[in-house]
Amino acid sequence: MKTAIALLLATAALACAADQTFTGVITDSMCGANHRMMNITPDSKCVTECVKSPGVKYALLDGDKVYKLSDQQTPAQYAGAKVRVSGTLFPKTGIIEVKKIEPVK
Q1: Whole-angstrom distance, CA of residue 38 vs CA of residue 34
Q2: Closest-CA residue to 71 (of 62, 58, 53)
Q3: pLDDT computed for residue 41 by the predictor
Q4: Is 101 exposed, middle or buried (0-12, 13-18, 19+ CB in 10 A)?
Q5: Which residues 6+ apart lie within 8 Å of 44 measured at CB?
Q6: DSSP codes, 14-75
Q7: pLDDT 10s per residue in the chain (105 long)?
Q8: What pLDDT does residue 45 have?
């Protein structure tokens, strides 16, 4: 019986971790939506400069939410641009495990 319950809980956890699609702008975890405090323009340049700082990561600004991205190489080419990110969101950490990033036209 315990095995059946454990299997059921594991299956439910996997079902909750399904791929999703998010649309937003590639930013950094320090500035988020507001790049004015850094006084670096345009925003794309600010993002590129900020991620050089220790602990600062590429992120996705989706509405008013900022999600950190597991992939830290692909977002570099889209800094400051609107993109569509496919992946799995882990709500406790706010990290999207990135499967795919593509520009939105």
Answers
A1: 9
A2: 58
A3: 83
A4: buried
A5: 79, 80, 81
A6: HHHT--EEEEEEEEETTTTT--GGGT-SSHHHHHHHHTTSTT--EEEEETTEEEEES-SSGG
A7: 666 565 555 555 555 568 899 999 999 999 998 888 888 889 899 999 999 999 999 999 999 999 999 999 999 999 999 999 999 999 999 999 999 999 998
A8: 92
Which residues neighbour 60 within 8 Å (Cβ) at sequence distance 6 or greater? Answer: 22, 24, 25, 26, 27, 66, 67, 69, 75, 83, 85, 96
Domains defined along the chain, listed by start: 19-103 (2.40.50)
Could you give the CA distance from residue 17 to residue 77 in angstroms, rounded to a whole number?
27
CA distance 58 to 37: 17
For the beta carbon of residue 33, count every other beta carbon within 10 angstroms.
14
pTM comes to 0.79
Whether 98 and 69 have beta carbons less than 8 Å apart is answered as yes
